């Protein structure tokens, strides 16, 4: 069964006061993107990888120039290092006003249309919606097929589940239920650590 790619489409706050250096926006941008990479939706709370600021229209795109300032807040995307590294200077339409032509190019991750590009497989893989060539292009260029993204998705879900079990354990007085929950708790914790370990190996 397919699931939605992400629950929330991020929004950049309006009228962000201009800062001289774009890096000064990191904490507000991080909040606006709900602590997630705009492109792959990986959460930054697991502290496995560092996150950074991506310029949606690259600062030095291949084949043309533009005058969007590097510190223009509304061109910035909170991004994981994987997606940021893959996007680099790509802007295939070579037109600053055209982000894509329906087949190649990008969509600003703060647009609803970006959320609609993808779905999640049962195991958390990022899959292009229906037959969107643009979704296929973006998935290929940003390497959204990398196993790390499905792993991060699984880790987050498992983390939520462990939290829920912990809450139940804290509140229940039923000893039979408590014993069952404890079993589940250790089972999921073990699974969680195994996935976490595989993520670390991949990063070496
Ligand atoms: Zn990412």
UniProtKB/TrEMBL annotation:
Q: Which InterPro entries match?
A: HNH, HNH_nuc
**Keyword annotations:** Coiled coil, Endonuclease, Hydrolase, Nuclease
- In the UniProt record, does the keyword DNA damage occur? no
Q: Write down what this protein is called.
A: HNH endonuclease
Coiled-coil annotation: which residues? 148-182
- Taken from the record, one Pfam family name reads HNH
Q: Name all HNH domain ranges.
A: 37-89
What are this entry's molecular-function GO terms? endonuclease activity; nucleic acid binding; zinc ion binding
């Amino acid at each position: 069964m397919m699931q939605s790619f992400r629950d929330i489409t991020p929004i950049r706050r309006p009228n962000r006061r201009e800062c001289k250096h774009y890096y000064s926006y990191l904490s507000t941008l991080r909040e606006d993107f709900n602590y997630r990479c705009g492109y792959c939706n990986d959460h930054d709370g697991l502290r496995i990888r560092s996150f950074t600021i991506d310029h949606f229209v690259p600062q030095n795109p291949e084949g043309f120039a533009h005058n969007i300032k590097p510190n223009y807040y509304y061109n910035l995307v909170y991004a994981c290092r994987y997606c940021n590294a893959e996007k680099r200077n790509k802007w295939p339409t070579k037109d600053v006003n055209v982000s894509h032509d329906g087949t190649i190019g990008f969509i600003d991750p703060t647009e609803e249309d970006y959320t609609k590009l993808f779905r999640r497989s049962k195991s958390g893989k990022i899959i292009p919606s229906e037959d969107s060539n643009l979704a296929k292009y973006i998935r290929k260029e940003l390497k959204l097929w990398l196993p790390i993204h499905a792993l991060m998705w699984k880790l987050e879900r498992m983390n939520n589940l462990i939290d829920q079990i912990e809450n139940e354990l804290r509140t229940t007085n039923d000893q039979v239920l408590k014993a069952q929950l404890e079993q589940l708790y250790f089972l999921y914790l073990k699974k969680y650590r195994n996935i976490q370990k595989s993520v670390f190996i991949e990063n070496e």
